[in-house]
Amino acid sequence: MASDENPNHTVHVVSGLEPAEALEILGAKPRLFQPCELPDGKPDRWTSLPAAALGIESGASGALLAGRIGEWTFVYDDSMATDHLSTPSLSANGRSAATSMFSIHANASLSYFVNSEQLAWIDIHDDLEENLPSMPADLRAAFDAAGIFGLDGDVEPGKHDDAILMRAVCALAGLTCTLSDLRRIPLLVTAFG
What we know:
Elements: E1 9-15, H1 19-25, E2 34-36, H2 49-54, E3 62-69, E4 72-77, H3 87-90, E5 96-102, E6 108-114, E7 117-123, H4 128-131, H5 137-146, H6 164-172, H7 179-182, E8 187-192
Helix pairs in contact: 5-6
């Protein structure tokens, strides 16, 4: 859903919380929430699908898209206007929450909290193989499921690609869905940032 030219984006996942509640914790205003059906396409390569659903012109504002699959809610932020600072609040009251961010400069990170306590922080430049044994079991399993991918063999043997943290967050929450799958579930969208 990220645009080709501006891949700054954040994904939050949280168990046991409704999408509207997650959006509010992230600072979005409930009066701006709208039900959403993702459009079939984008007006240009710079606009995300959530922004296109809102009719936001590229660069005018960001958009947050939220939905729930099973026990997990996700919030996709197309402009990286949200960050890890909200993850402890998302995880309050015994919930599990994780956030992954990716910038146009290939800076990426992942935080994982349970009951407002940070259990893991991973930077894309960290040695994942070295850090995997100390991660919680469900996060280790998410990294196993995320795999190692590269474009045209650009990933060295034993190394990971830059998108592994986003895939690990999605694997943690069981978000192995396609755009067609997303179009079949209730979604909320709001302008943000």
